[in-house]
């Protein structure tokens, strides 16, 4: 048997590549990004420090404020909508219906499409002069109007709708697996006690599924923070700047508008926001558990 | 076995040494964003001429100017630059020059005598500190009004020459149930329309005060407010299908007679030609409605610095080929633009190009485009504000005026 310290260092050596990647590729670039955000870099990073100038410009920018608001609207609607829709679909599929696998495939299918395809499909479907609105009018319902896509105050809801259409199937798949894990004895016991089905779902099944809901929420939340392609394909931020999102702001200032300083300031703010949201969760995960377990 | 493979390897190495330089000679990967029907026909002229001159054109087309520029800059910064890359004439490639990432073209320029046939505006636009860094390939003008001649005739409208006439004509079209003005949903086309109004209603001096001097007082003036009001009024003449519509689809609506008017640069002509029609006949054109001012814009190619001698040779050949008189005439006829050389035979160009050339030759009737005068950062902020105004009918012209004034005040 090898001495203890040798084993320790062998393990560290084996982990070294991973450590290097974490330190240089993740933490290193994060620090570099934050550093650039305090400079007035244009196309290329320079080290001409200007303090918080980029940040004050960022928060004075109407486009950034709209982007953040849109992310909040989209995030809440998308996560809540997907969880509710996904749960209902899973419950319906769990009723021992015929051809279940066919429906499962249909509901999960949108998730196999990229956001770009989803965006284009919905763009064409909801274009007032090509899609649903025109079709209804051609069928004789002349006053039918559904022009949310070309209305600045409504277009963000269309994006949330398209997102829900795409991701609900994933939530369904996760929750369906969870529902299959619910002990059949529970249902029998509930039946004997004469408890209505909906109460069984609300008070017994949903609490059992809590870990599944947590998994689904984390997956959906990461999709929210990085939402970019869906917006680009569906509205490209328009009409005007009404459907801009933070990720698109960063990409555009990074490359097209040639302002690295402002772009990195925006991405630093995104990072801080995500950390703030994650902090309570991390705390519960890593600091609370040992005490409650012991 | 081992012996044979070593021999084979040796042979392969020798062959590759011999073949390498020959195969790579004059091979040029050219990154550009000319992907619509009319545009790709034009870029094929460059490819054919370059291949005929002994080069090998490798096409790297990326749809959308912004996406193409982002990809190109990334490749240059990443150390894997294309042989040549397209930019709009103006400040877009300024930082690349400042960082020393672009090849100096002085040798080619001196050999071909660029200073003899390029206009001073263009020479200023493609050189920095007295050195050439880009090849201008065309002169485009953004401020053209296109109209469907047959549709106008059918509604008893004579082609408008003033903005009041335009509004009267569009009212008639609206009453007749056709789209008065075809507009794309892309923000840059909304900016283009705004600049057309600024030039056409505000005139040359106001335009230069705003874009060249960044004069905030000029933006707060009554003249500028009139521009904003006219632009705001135009919002009433678009249709509901703008969102998601590309510029060529908007021009297509005029070409097919579904819409009466379209404000678009002279590259719209490429779409007219691609549809088998004649610009100036079935689809009429007016440069600079109102104050007759010609917007000078266009495209350039830059050549990222490289240590590879073959690539350098290819760059020199390409720079020379793009500016030969034959290439210039053939390319610009397809592209819908005007040749950068003042010394070529322009009689073969269509009626619209002739009208443009006439305006171009008039003293003080042209302005350098906004890309020449302001950074992508300022123009980007302007695009946000204008796009928002265009798509928010409740926003007032006064709000637009204040927001634009804020942008230029912040840029000082």
UniProtKB/TrEMBL annotation, chain A:
The source's superkingdom equals: Bacteria
**Which lineage?**
Bacteria, Pseudomonadati, Pseudomonadota, Alphaproteobacteria, Hyphomicrobiales
Report the subcellular localization. Cell membrane
Q: Which residues cross the membrane?
A: 12-34, 71-93, 105-124, 155-179, 200-225, 262-284
- What region holds the ABC transmembrane type-1 domain? 68-281
**UniProt organism field:** Kaistia dalseonensis
- Which SUPFAM superfamilies has this protein been placed in? MetI-like (SSF161098)
**Main location as per UniProt:** membrane
**What are the UniProt keywords, alphabetically?**
Cell membrane, Membrane, Transmembrane, Transmembrane helix, Transport
Q: Which family does it belong to?
A: Belongs to the binding-protein-dependent transport system permease family.
Membrane topology label: Multi-pass membrane protein
Q: What is this protein called?
A: Glucose/mannose transport system permease protein
Q: Which PANTHER family match?
A: ABC TRANSPORTER PERMEASE PROTEIN (PTHR30193)
TrEMBL record, chain B:
Subcellular localization: Periplasm
Annotated keywords: Periplasm, Signal, Sugar transport, Transport
Which InterPro entries does the UniProt entry name for this protein? Bact_solute-bd_prot1 (IPR050490), SBP (IPR006059)
Residues annotated as signal peptide: 1-24
Q: Where does the protein principally reside?
A: periplasm
Query: Member of which family?
Result: Belongs to the bacterial solute-binding protein 1 family.
Q: What does this protein do?
A: Part of a binding-protein-dependent transport system for a sugar.
Write the protein's name. Probable sugar-binding periplasmic protein
Originating species? Kaistia dalseonensis
Upper taxonomic classification of the species? Bacteria, Pseudomonadati, Pseudomonadota, Alphaproteobacteria, Hyphomicrobiales
């Amino acid at each position: 048997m090898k001495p203890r310290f040798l084993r320790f260092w062998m393990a560290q050596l084996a982990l070294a590549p991973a450590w290097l990647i974490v330190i240089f590729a993740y933490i290193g670039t994060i620090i570099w990004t934050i550093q650039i955000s305090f400079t007035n870099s244009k196309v290329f990073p320079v080290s001409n420090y200007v303090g918080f100038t980029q940040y004050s410009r960022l928060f004075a920018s109407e486009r950034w404020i709209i982007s953040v608001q849109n992310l909040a609207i989209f995030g809440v609607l998308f996560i809540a909508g997907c969880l509710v829709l996904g749960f209902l679909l899973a419950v319906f599929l769990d009723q021992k219906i015929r051809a279940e696998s066919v429906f499962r495939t249909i509901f999960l299918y949108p998730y196999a499409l990229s956001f770009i395809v989803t965006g284009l499909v919905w763009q064409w479907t909801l274009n007032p002069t090509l899609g649903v609105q025109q079709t209804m009018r051609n069928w004789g319902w002349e006053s039918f109007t559904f022009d949310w896509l070309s209305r600045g105050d409504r277009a963000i809801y269309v994006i949330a709708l398209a997102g829900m259409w795409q991701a609900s199937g994933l939530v369904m798949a996760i929750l369906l697996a969870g529902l299959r894990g619910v002990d059949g004895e529970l249902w029998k016991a509930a039946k004997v006690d004469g408890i209505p089905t909906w109460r069984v779902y609300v008070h017994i099944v949903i609490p059992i599924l809590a870990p599944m809901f947590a998994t689904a929420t984390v997956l959906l939340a990461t999709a929210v923070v990085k939402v970019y392609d869906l917006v680009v394909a569906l509205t490209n931020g328009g009409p005007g700047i009404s459907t801009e999102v933070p990720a698109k702001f960063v990409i555009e200032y990074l490359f097209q508008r040639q302002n690295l300083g402002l772009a990195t300031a925006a991405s630093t703010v995104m990072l801080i926001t995500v950390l703030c949201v994650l902090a309570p969760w991390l705390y519960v995960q890593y600091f609370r558990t040992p005490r409650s377990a012991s | 076995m081992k012996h044979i493979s070593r021999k084979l390897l040796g042979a392969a190495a020798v062959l590759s040494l011999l073949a390498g330089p020959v195969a790579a000679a004059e091979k040029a990967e050219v990154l550009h964003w000319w992907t619509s029907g009319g545009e790709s026909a034009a870029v094929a002229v460059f490819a054919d001429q370059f291949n005929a001159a002994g080069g090998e054109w490798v096409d790297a087309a990326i749809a959308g100017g912004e996406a193409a520029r982002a990809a190109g800059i990334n490749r240059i910064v990443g150390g894997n630059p294309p042989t040549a890359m397209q930019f709009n004439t103006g400040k877009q490639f300024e930082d690349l020059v400042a960082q020393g990432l672009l090849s100096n073209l002085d040798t080619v320029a001196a050999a071909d005598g660029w200073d003899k046939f390029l206009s001073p505006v263009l020479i200023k636009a493609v050189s920095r500190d007295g050195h050439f860094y880009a090849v201008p390939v065309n002169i485009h003008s953004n401020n053209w009004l296109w109209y469907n001649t047959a549709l106008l005739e059918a509604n008893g409208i004579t082609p408008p020459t003033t903005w009041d006439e335009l509004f009267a004509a569009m009212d008639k079209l609206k009453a007749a149930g056709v789209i008065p003005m075809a507009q794309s949903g892309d923000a840059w086309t909304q900016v283009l329309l705004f600049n057309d109004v600024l030039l056409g209603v505000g005139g040359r001096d106001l335009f230069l005060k705003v874009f060249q001097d960044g004069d905030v007082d000029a933006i707060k003036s009554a003249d500028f407010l009139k521009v904003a009001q006219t632009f705001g009024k135009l919002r009433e003449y678009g249709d509901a299908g703008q969102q998601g519509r590309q510029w060529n689809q908007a021009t297509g609506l005029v070409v097919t007679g579904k819409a009466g008017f379209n404000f678009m640069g002279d590259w719209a002509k490429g779409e007219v030609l691609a549809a088998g029609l004649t610009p100036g006949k079935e689809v009429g054109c007016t440069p600079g409605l109102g104050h007759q001012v010609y917007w000078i814009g266009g495209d350039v190619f830059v050549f990222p610095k490289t240590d590879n001698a073959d690539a350098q040779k290819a760059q020199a050949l390409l720079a020379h080929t793009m500016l030969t008189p034959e290439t210039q005439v053939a390319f610009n006829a397809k592209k819908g633009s005007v040749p950068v050389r003042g010394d070529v035979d322009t009689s073969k160009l269509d009626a619209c190009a002739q009208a443009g050339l006439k305006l171009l030759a008039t003293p003080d009737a042209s302005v350098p485009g906004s890309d020449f005068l302001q950074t992508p950062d300022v123009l980007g902020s302007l695009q946000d504000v204008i796009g928002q105004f265009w798509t928010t009918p409740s926003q007032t012209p006064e709000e637009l005026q204040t927001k634009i004034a804020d942008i230029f005040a912040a840029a000082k």
